[in-house]
Amino acid sequence: MPLDRKFATRASRMKASEIRELLKLLDQPGIISFAGGIPDPALFPAEAFAEAFANVLDPAHQAQALQYSVSEGYHPLRRWIVAEMARIGVDCDIDNVLITSGSQQALDYLGKLFLSPGDTALIGWPTYLGALAAFNAYEPRYDQLSINANRPASDYQAAAQQAGGQVKFAYLSADFANPTGETVDRRGREALIDLADELDCAVIEDAAYQSLRYDGEAVPPILALEIARKGSIEECRTVYCGSFSKTLAPGLRVGWAVAAKPVIAQMVLLKQAADLHSSTINQMAITRVAEEHFDTHIPKLRAVYQRRRDAMLDALSRHMPNGVQWTKPEGGMFIWVTLPAGMDGAALLARSLDTEKVAFVPGQAFFADGSGANTIRLSFSCSDEPTINEGIRRLGEIVRTG
Ligand code: PMP
After folding, report:
1. Which architecture characterizes domain 60-293 according to CATH?
2. What is d(CA 105, CA 72) in angstroms, rounded to the nearest whole number?
3. In 3-state terms, the chain is what percent helix, strand and coil (to 5)?
4. Would you place residue 16 in the very low, low, confident or very high pLDDT band (cuts 50, 70, 90)?
5. Sign (positive/negative) of CA torsion 102, 84, 301, 324?
6. 162: exposed, middle or buried (C-beta count within 10 Å: 0-12, 13-18, 19+)?
7. In a 10 Å sphere around its CB, with 0-12 CB exposed, 13-18 middle and 19+ buried, how is residue 176 labelled?
8. Which residue's CA is the nearest one to ligand 1's atom 2?
9. Residue whose CA is closest, atom 6 of ligand 1?
10. Which of 164, 206, 364, 401 is the one with CA 20 to 30 A from 245?
């Protein structure tokens, strides 16, 4: 191809998502898939959306719904988000909120806003693959964020300087992370704020799964803890990224960012340059559905996903041989399995697809340093309990036969 030598250096770090490539292979009949981290489409509030779209397309609203709109986002939706954020302890106003096209877009903008080539982004090992994809384009260096590990700030700083840049942010999903399902406790969140203060860097709090808690006690968002400490969101370094993808529907591509006003103002400029604004009609429809159905819909989702999580945990304990470990998530969609040392997740997947027709995601892709070969990610969101039990039984068989 004559043009590939003309691509910018950043293109060399963009590669096809292994997960997306994998998902393409799974459209075969008979496969039990624990691979995709997606909501169960049977749980979409489809009727509520049909009604909402009919409403926003009626003669009173259609001109607005089909027109360009402001980059900051649809005002009533931002108002709803301000109220929702207040409920989880984040005191902010409308100018602290930007509507994005999914929270994925916020991650891209934050990479673009903070990272010069060679700067350091602190991430978990493993971390959300989409965050790596978003940040990679801005040519950062990654360092492992170790909360509570007593690694001094000066150590992170020295390594960043040696690489020719600064630590710009720490990125994490504090609730039911993708891929591990794990939650950072309050102490960890406080320690992270301390570390970010010492490093003088931002915190990107990815809250994509935050509403999906099934048991245990909710931990306040990092942004809420930071506001409590510093008195106002304007003093805070945390940027909170929310999403309707896991609660209402991902296809509409509506998410949001909440941060100090100067950060939001800068993100608005990025949005003006990138796509002007998120889809007006989708924002209007999601506002109606959120206002009228969010509070009744979320408990229904939680009940179904909780049963599926329980079924998977139960099946793992019955069918996995000794030496296999897994996380016990209090919410979200994922269980993270660590296989015996030396067992390879990718090889296991190949065998599993071949003989048992069970799919999952090998864990190595989630590690910026290429480690984690003996890990796999299981998603319980899209299968009913008997299917989960059968799939884990077959998986146990494959692991046992090595
Ligand atoms: N963050 C995490 C941790 C995710 O798992 C996802 C979706 N897989 C996203 C962000 C992006 O979601 P969306 O853009 O649909 O809001």
Report:
1. 3-Layer(aba) Sandwich (3.40)
2. 13
3. 50, 15, 40
4. confident
5. positive
6. exposed
7. buried
8. 208
9. 208
10. 364
Q: How far is CA 218 from CA 154, 210, 211, 330, 331, in A?
A: 32, 9, 10, 10, 10
For residue 318, which amino acid is it?
R
pLDDT at 22: 67
Q: Which of 8-22, 78-92, 207-221, 278-292 has the lowest mean pLDDT?
A: 8-22
The set of protein residues with a Cβ atom below 6 angstroms from ligand 1 is 37, 102-104, 128, 130, 173, 178, 206, 208, 243, 245, 250, 255
Instruction: Take atom 4 of ligand 1 and give the residue whose Cα is closest.
Output: 208
Report how far ligand 1's centroid is from the alpha carbon of 106 (Å): 10
* 122 three-class SS: strand
The token duo for 21 is: 């490539």
Please give the structure tokens belonging to residue 383: 């299968």
Closest CA to 35 of 369, 358, 396, 401: 358
The answer, as to whether pTM is greater than 0.90, is: yes
Domains 3-45+296-400 and 60-293 share a fold: no
| Alpha carbon of 50 to ligand 1 centroid (Å) | 24
State which ligand 1 atom lies nearest to the alpha carbon of 245.
Answer: 15
Position 402 scores a pLDDT of: 74
Task: Please report, for the chain, the start and end positions of each structural domain, with discontinuous segments joined by +.
Answer: 3-45+296-400, 60-293
Residue with token string 């509403």: 211
Distance 104 CA to ligand 1 centre (A): 6
CATH architecture entry for 3-45+296-400: Alpha-Beta Complex (3.90)
Q: How far is the CA of 385 from the centre of ligand 1 (A)?
A: 25
